[in-house]
From TrEMBL:
It comes from Microbacterium azadirachtae. The gene is betB_2. Its EC number is 1.2.1.8. The keyword Oxidoreductase applies. This is NAD/NADP-dependent betaine aldehyde dehydrogenase. Pfam families: Aldedh (PF00171). GO terms for molecular function: betaine-aldehyde dehydrogenase (NAD+) activity. Residues 22-235 form the Aldehyde dehydrogenase domain. Signal peptide: none annotated.
Length: 283
C-alpha cells in the first residue's frame, strides 16, 4: 500500500464568519524556534482591517441583544469545543513555541478554564458594574452597564493561545464584537481558535482575527472612526502612545499595555454606563 501524502493546513484570516485570504495576497512564513518551516500565515492589510471592522459592526447589535444567559451558554460551548480539539492545539503550540507537550497542555487547559470562567460572569458582571443609586426624591436611579461596541485588540504577543483568549473572552461577555490582531510570531493557534468559535454558536463577525504585523495594522484600527475601544494589551513593543493619540481623535476608550489578569474589571473596561430614572409608585 502506497504512503499517503500529508495535507498541510492552510491558515487564513477570520472575517465575518468566513476564512478569506488577505486581499493583498501577502503571506509570511511561520517557523519553529529552530527555524523549521511550519506554515504560511496570511499577512493582513489595511483593507482586511476595514473589512473586519465592518463585519464586527454588523454583528455587534445582534450579539448585544442576546440575553446574558445565552451569551454565557455560547462562551461555555467554546470551552467544550476547544476541549475536544485539545490535542491539535497542544501540537500547534509545541511546534510554534518550542515548549514541551506538558507546558503546551497547561496553556490549553488554562485557556479552556478561562472561557468557562468568563462564561460564568455573563449574567453576573452587571451586579458589579451597575448600581442602584441613592437619590433624594420619589425616583429609582439605576446605573446599568452596556457594551461599548466594536473593540479592536492587539493580543499579547508572547503566547500562541492563552494571551489571545485572555483579551477576547472578557470583551465578548458584555456584548461587544472584536477585531483582534493575533501574535505575529505565533499566529497559527489564533486561526484554529477562530475555527472553534465558528462551530460554537458565536455569530459570524462577532470575533474577527487578523494575522500579520501589529505595527502595520494597529494604527489603522486606532484611527478607524467605527471602532469604539482599543485594547493595547500586546502593543508594548510598538509605539503605543501614538496609538492612544490616534484613538483620542475619535474618543475611543483605550486600555494601555500591561499584565492581563482575569478580572470582572476587564469586562467593565469595555462597557458604557446608562443611567435610568424611574418614578416610584405612588400607590
Amino acid at each position: 500500500m502506497s504512503a499517503r501524502l500529508t495535507v498541510p493546513k492552510t491558515y487564513k484570516l477570520a472575517i465575518g464568519g468566513a476564512f478569506p485570504r488577505s486581499e493583498s495576497g501577502r503571506t509570511y512564513e511561520v517557523a519553529s524556534p529552530k527555524g523549521v518551516f511550519l506554515a504560511n500565515a496570511a499577512q493582513a492589510s489595511r483593507k482586511d482591517a476595514r473589512d473586519a471592522v465592518k463585519a464586527a459592526r454588523t454583528a455587534q447589535a445582534g450579539w448585544a441583544k442576546a440575553t446574558a444567559y445565552n451569551r454565557g451558554q455560547v462562551l461555555y460551548r467554546v470551552a467544550e469545543v476547544l476541549e475536544g480539539r485539545r490535542a491539535q492545539f497542544v501540537e500547534e503550540i509545541v511546534a510554534q513555541q518550542g515548549v514541551s507537550a506538558a507546558v503546551a497542555g497547561a496553556q490549553v487547559d488554562e485557556a479552556i478554564d478561562l472561557w468557562v470562567w468568563y462564561a460564568g460572569w455573563c449574567d453576573k458582571y452587571a451586579q458589579i458594574a451597575g448600581n442602584l443609586n441613592p437619590v433624594s426624591g420619589a425616583y429609582f436611579n439605576i446605573s446599568a452597564p452596556e457594551p461599548t461596541g466594536v473593540v479592536a485588540i492587539v493580543a499579547p504577543q508572547e503566547s500562541a493561545l492563552l494571551g489571545l483568549v485572555s483579551v477576547v473572552a472578557p470583551a465578548l461577555v458584555a456584548g461587544n464584537a472584536v477585531v483582534v490582531v493575533a501574535s505575529e510570531q505565533y499566529p497559527l493557534s489564533a486561526i484554529s481558535l477562530a475555527e472553534v468559535l465558528a462551530t460554537s454558536d458565536v455569530p459570524g463577525g462577532v470575533v474577527n482575527v487578523l494575522t500579520g504585523s501589529p505595527a502595520e495594522l494597529a494604527p489603522w484600527l486606532a484611527a478607524h472612526a467605527d471602532v469604539n475601544a482599543l485594547d493595547l494589551a500586546g502593543a508594548g513593543g510598538i509605539d503605543w502612545v501614538d496609538l492612544q493619540i490616534a484613538a483620542a481623535d475619535t474618543l475611543k476608550r483605550v486600555l494601555a499595555p500591561g499584565e492581563v489578569v482575569a478580572s470582572p474589571q476587564r469586562i467593565a473596561a469595555f462597557t458604557e454606563v446608562k443611567t435610568v430614572w424611574h418614578p416610584k409608585s405612588m400607590v
